[in-house]
């Protein structure tokens, strides 16, 4: 049985996919993952998930974010006056980056 | 007849203009009004996740309406004339999309979506090779989004119809909604009436809706704007929806099925609801909806709907 | 189980996760705070949804629908963050909200009658919310902080869209400008009350701050908000009402004369007893109950995934 492994490097960070292990059950999967995926890279926590429990939908199944113009949902579509609050500027920057990455696909 | 060139809107004859206008208005109005109805489910859907999904579909349809209305921009029309200041009787959407939802009737939301989305897919296919390059160019983008809508509707239909194992409420509700919606769904394939006064320059009264024009429907196909007739689209639609709905254990009223398993599409007057939408007749619910969506525009005395996005390419 | 003193010692940003065995006091305080936040997203969306339809153009309608959709999405994220504390399920929280037991922001108890009021929520209240949310990215409950990452990412669109509506109204006809000023005067005291009473009157503040759930005091947040949004309001030609009196200190910060605000109304609202707001609570309850049958249908047939005890996630 295959288990997908997600590693969190430090407290508070996200668990991100880092690989998988073969193991007969959850307990063994955790033990194996701790060595295979936690022995070198900084690790605070690992999650193991049975591979067959993972569902996938990909860009062939659906056009993520749509295909028609959705610029109305981005902060960058609006021209306002004066300086914005710090947190608004940060959000707008993050959105500009994401919007650009989407466009690059 | 040689296919006219729709690439230069300035060069169109009166008949060509009318055919284009008639085709696009029903596409745009259908999408716009359906989106209006879908947004009623925002903050009211069965779960938070399904709320997000339906809101997505509403925005997609509204985006499609925006693209289609923009095609008429080439003929000199603006959003003000096409939406916010158009008389309600001049809208050409099918009555299927204008009916209000009864509170909590999620079966209606998903079945209506299914009936509409299948028709929409067929209609878009018949526009892929349109003689209007603007139409043909916009079809692909719209089709990519419609795929999700249809799958979404079917996924829900199958889960609600299976409800027999539990209370059976889902199945009962679907049947009731199907009986109610089916005649209205048939109006999708009805002929459109030209705009008020279009047939008769001397008729300024415009009290009565124009007779649905078979001429203009023939023109739409003859000019190559759409490559299938309404009858052909309707027949294909029945050949898809009837077996599918029956496979869910639903009885389709007036299915149009002939004995040999082929689908003969013949809509008789008895099958249709009193209001057809396409000819400018609408249910009372439409007027209420119209008043509501134009409310702010009128309250503030606006004369120009706000643009946020660039004009579509 | 971790004792309370250890929690207070360790209470740093994103310090605690579902893997930690936290004391009841922490779990309950965090649940109360995140549930309030989640409920507010839902009730804010409920308040604004009629204006999707009443938006004065297709583009505005699209933006408004997207905004309301985002708020429901934020509710989804936040209820998960709250659920992960193991005190209440999402269903219980939504039921409590329907029954009038769930608490939410004061501003979302007031009816929203006209388009000119829309920017009062979608610019000023959202701006205030964003100020607070930005600080909550450093909250001690990791799933809450993670939810805030996503919320803050999206929220910039909401504030900019709200500001764009305000700008359009204040550069529109005289009638629009006057109506907007009137709406501003009605909403301004409520907007200031968004941040709640001064810290020494706030019952839950001390504990929430001590365990790192809350990162900034009501007073500091209110100040930062006024600092940013008073100049904005003036820039668009809005006049700041005389009451509540606001003093600008020598260092450029503001002090609000709290006695000028209607705290009786505020605390009536906080108890879900404000009459006009009850219409909103009950309206949402009715909508929720009308689709009970759908949830029952899909849940009756749902397979239970895995067959293990649910593990920590988020």
**What proportion of the residues of chain A form beta strands (DSSP E)?**
15-25%
Quick one: which chains have the greatest interface? B-C, 52 and 51 residues
Low-confidence stretches of chain A: none
CATH architecture assignment of the largest domain in chain A: Roll
Which CATH class of the largest domain in chain A?
A: Alpha Beta
Cα distance spanning the termini of chain A: 34 Å
CATH topology of the largest domain in chain A, what is it called?
Ubiquitin-like (UB roll)
Instruction: Please report the number of helical segments of chain A.
Output: 2
Look at the structure and name the CATH superfamily of chain C: Ferritin, core subunit, four-helix bundle
Helix content of chain C: 55-70%
Mean pLDDT of chain C equals 93
Counted beta strands of chain A: 3
Could you say which structural class the secondary elements and strand pairing of chain A correspond to? Answer: alpha+beta
Principal-axes shape call of chain C: globular
Report the biggest beta sheet of chain C as strand number plus sense, adding barrel if it closes. Answer: 2 strands, antiparallel
Could you provide a short overview of the structure?
The complex is a heterotrimer of chains A (105), B (313) and C (314). With 105 residues, chain A is of the alpha+beta class.
Structural topology:
The complex is a heterotrimer of chains A (105), B (313) and C (314).
Chain A lengths: L1 E7 L7 E7 L3 H11 L8 E6 L35 H19 L1
Antiparallel strand pairs in A: 1-2, 1-3
Chain B lengths: L13 H26 L8 H26 L5 H6 L10 H4 L7 H20 L7 H29 L7 H18 L27 H9 L7 H18 L36 H10 L1 H5 L14
Chain C lengths: L3 H7 L13 H25 L1 H4 L4 H26 L6 H9 L19 H19 L5 H29 L3 H20 L11 H6 L7 H18 L10 E3 L5 E3 L6 H8 L4 H16 L1 H9 L14
Helix pairs in contact in C: 2-4, 4-7, 6-7, 6-8, 6-10
3D structure, described in words:
The complex is a heterotrimer of chains A (105), B (313) and C (314). Chain A has helices at residues 26-36, 86-104, and strands at 2-8, 16-22, 45-50. By secondary structure, chain A is of the alpha+beta class. In chain A, 21% of the residues are buried. Chain B has one domain: Ferritin, core subunit, four-helix bundle (Ferritin, Up-down Bundle). The two termini of chain B are 30 Å apart. Residues 201-210 of chain B have low confidence and may be disordered. Chain C is mainly alpha-helical and 314 residues long. Chain C has a single domain (4-293), classed as Ferritin, core subunit, four-helix bundle (Ferritin, Up-down Bundle), CATH 1.20.1260.10. Chain C has a two-stranded antiparallel sheet with strand order 1-2. The chains are: A alpha+beta (105), B mainly alpha (313), C mainly alpha (314).
